[in-house]
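Quick one, tokens below:
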């Protein structure tokens, strides 16, 4: 058994884990960072999802280090890609010109930028990255985690990591059950949270769908994949609230639940500069091709790209047959989610109704080289909902819902450690619920949501903070996850510097003010200007 140690152990190398590690490293601390997939970056990279961001992202509402990530992505394109001169001069370059985000891009670019941000700390020896490793056990002494056992994904011996602070930045809160930390999953009961959209009885196994994304382009030739073994099952599958089969262009509109028909036009030849990527104005999902497009060929010199590249994270790949957390058959469900995505691709290539009256788009080509996986799909499933700690503060729907808060805006917290904004956006769930999509006020991230009620040195650094099933729908997106991780890393560093604890920082006004001052110094925004939710 190999044993390693550092000032902090960050388990999980998604956006929250990377941000947590960077905050600790900037503070002069040593870090062990683990990740079970081949790429750091989580939902932005191994899960292949371009960033979901708010209206004001180009001006305010994100941390300085998250902005450095975004700036780095644009700089990477300008330094290494054959952009047209018009695209190169575009200050707010959107390489994919997707409607979902003002910065749609290929996941590998984000990997390169994240690696560059971490590179000097690797070189100095203060950062050790264990990859691909995942946690398999924890040793606990009372309310403290004393060690975490890590196993290589592909077999081999285990490593034991020891650190004064342990941060759980995994996609599903994997350390929480291993350490015996108190947590919740799924829907909480309305009597417990007071949330207008909550059910009367708690439903811990009712969780948001997971999705296995994939990238495609459209070129000459027949690129039809082999028929998936489960294709006939998925071809006939129809959720009761869907309005049609899952494999169709028809589905509920998330905001109205009206059954609508999406369009699909590969390579429409649109002007990338005219794409309005602002979900306050338009959710952008009318044409699925441009919705999450990650490379618009019009941004690149003629001949550089045969086709646009689009990222399939569409309603039809949401897997509803069962949760993948705290169930004995999680592996079976994850495999079935991948089979659903392969079936969607096969349906697109062979049976999807075309805009010209025909069926099937055999020219659609799976781009596994873009997602970096052997089977052509994203390396990792897109996990929307994690285990969530029982925290000192739990953010509830009525704290940020526009319908409840009105012009008062979201609740403001004295212990704010950052800001975020996204609609409360819940996909259909494993319990058979339709979309829940609620207008949201720009909100703050309370420190109390990052502190477990009991555990002393275990901190959440991702989607596992003190939100509910419902408010997780707003707090789960890319810049908020990054801000949460950065605040958690900075908190661990601050506690090490002051020989104190997270609980003491929140309880002591002077300590809290000093910690918040450090966050602001490092470019973390704690309050919103006067803006209105949507």
């Amino acid at each position: 058994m190999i044993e390693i140690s550092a000032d902090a152990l960050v388990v999980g190398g998604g956006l929250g884990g990377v941000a947590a590690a960077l905050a600790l490293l900037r503070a002069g601390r040593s870090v062990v960072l683990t990740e079970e997939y081949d790429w750091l970056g989580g939902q932005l990279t191994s899960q292949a999802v371009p960033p979901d961001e708010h209206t004001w992202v180009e001006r305010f509402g994100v941390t300085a280090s998250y902005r450095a990530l975004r700036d780095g992505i644009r700089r990477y394109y300008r330094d290494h890609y054959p952009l047209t001169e018009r695209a190169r001069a575009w200050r707010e370059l959107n390489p994919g010109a997707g409607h979902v985000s003002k910065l749609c891009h290929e996941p590998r670019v984000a990997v390169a930028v994240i690696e560059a941000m971490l590179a000097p700390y690797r070189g100095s020896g203060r950062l050790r990255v264990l990859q691909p490793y995942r946690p398999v056990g924890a040793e606990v002494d009372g309310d403290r985690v004393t060690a975490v056992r890590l196993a290589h994904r592909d077999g081999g011996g285990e490593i034991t990591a020891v650190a004064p602070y342990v941060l759980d930045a995994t996609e599903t809160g994997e350390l929480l059950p291993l350490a015996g930390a108190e947590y919740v999953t799924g829907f909480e009961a309305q009597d417990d949270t007071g949330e207008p959209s909550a059910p009367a009885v708690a439903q811990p196994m009712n969780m948001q769908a997971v999705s296995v994304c994939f990238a495609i382009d459209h070129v000459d030739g027949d690129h039809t994949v082999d028929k998936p073994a489960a294709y006939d099952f998925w071809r006939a599958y129809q959720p009761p609230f869907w309005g049609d089969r899952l494999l169709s262009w028809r589905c509920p509109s998330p905001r109205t639940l009206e059954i609508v028909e999406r369009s699909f036009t590969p390579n429409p030849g649109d002007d990338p500069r005219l794409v309005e990527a602002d979900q306050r104005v338009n959710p952008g999902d009318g044409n699925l091709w441009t919705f999450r497009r990650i490379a618009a060929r019009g941004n690149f010199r003629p001949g550089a790209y045969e086709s646009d590249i689009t990222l399939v994270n569409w309603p039809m790949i949401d897997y509803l047959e069962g949760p993948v957390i705290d169930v004995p058959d999680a592996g079976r469900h994850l495999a079935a989610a991948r089979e659903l995505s392969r079936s969607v691709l096969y349906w697109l290539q062979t049976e999807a109704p075309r805009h010209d009256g025909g069926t099937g788009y055999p020219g659609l080509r799976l781009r596994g080289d873009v997602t970096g996986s052997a089977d052509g799909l994203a390396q990792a499933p897109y996990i929307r909902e994690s285990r969530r700690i029982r925290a000192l503060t739990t953010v509830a729907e009525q704290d940020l819902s526009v319908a409840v808060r009105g012009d008062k805006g979201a609740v403001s917290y004295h212990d704010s450690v950052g800001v975020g904004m996204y609609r409360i956006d819940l996909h259909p769930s494993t319990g058979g619920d339709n979309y829940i999509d609620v207008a949201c006020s720009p909100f703050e991230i309370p420190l109390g949501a990052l502190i477990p009620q009991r555990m002393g040195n275990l901190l959440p650094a991702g989607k596992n903070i003190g939100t509910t099933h419902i408010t997780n729908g707003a707090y789960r997106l890319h810049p908020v996850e990054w801000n949460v991780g950065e605040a958690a890393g900075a908190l661990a560093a601050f506690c090490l510097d002051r020989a104190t604890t997270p609980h003491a920082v929140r309880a002591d006004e002077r300590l809290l003010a000093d910690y918040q001052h450090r966050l602001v110094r490092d470019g973390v925004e704690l309050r919103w200007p006067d803006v209105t939710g949507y």
